[in-house]
Amino acid sequence: MNQNNVILNTLTYVVFFMIFLFSIHIFLAGHFAPGGGFVGGLLMASGLLLLYVTFDLETVRKMLPINYSILVAIGLLFALGTASIGLVAGDAFFTHYFNHFQLPLLGDSELHTAMLFDTGVYLVVVGVTMMIIESIGGDQ
Amino acid sequence: MIKAVLGLALLFFSITIVICLYRAIKGPTLPDRVIALDTIGVNLLSMVAIISLLQETTAYLEVILILGILSFIGTIAFSKFIERGVIIERKSDR
Lengths: 140, 94
Known about the structure:
The complex is a heterodimer.
Chain A: H1 6-28, H2 37-54, H3 57-63, H4 68-89, E1 98-103, E2 107-112, H5 114-137
Antiparallel strand pairs in A: 1-2
Helix pairs in contact in A: 1-2, 2-5, 4-5
Chain B: H1 2-26, H2 30-54, H3 61-84
């Protein structure tokens, strides 16, 4: 049965990048606004799910050759490494540090090590969700 | 005045959701139920927008966009299930 879904394909090309940018926005705005790593990761996973629904499993694996279990491991390493910064610096476990920096394009911006922990949460949520979806949708 | 108008709009949206809920429960075929759930999602995010106007906060604006994205992806997945019988294909014959 040869059906071509041109409308869905063309829509996915546009909507996937909108979902991607919105997930990045929610992830970066999590410190001062609603959002954060968990919601951003779930939104990124839903964008990837849109790719899986529009195309098929092998095409998406060819487009994005990501091993999601390695992604989960990298996220957990980010979380553990951020927690261990305090140990190296002589403070308690999970001590966070922040300071103001003059970035070239953004100007005066406040960088916080909780951001790195949030990156770990983001990667773990994306990885676990995509592992569940791939292992359920993989076999027929 | 504006609060009364917004409350009236909330009332109308809830009536619409009740009507769509009737169609989602009673609907004779599966596509009727999917369309009803999609309409419920759209009305729900309109209600969130009106509630954020009533409470005079901008904290709910992300909720509106996320609800729109989730409703869209859910409807796409349901319609693919109705059309093909499977949501994620292993290898499509294109």
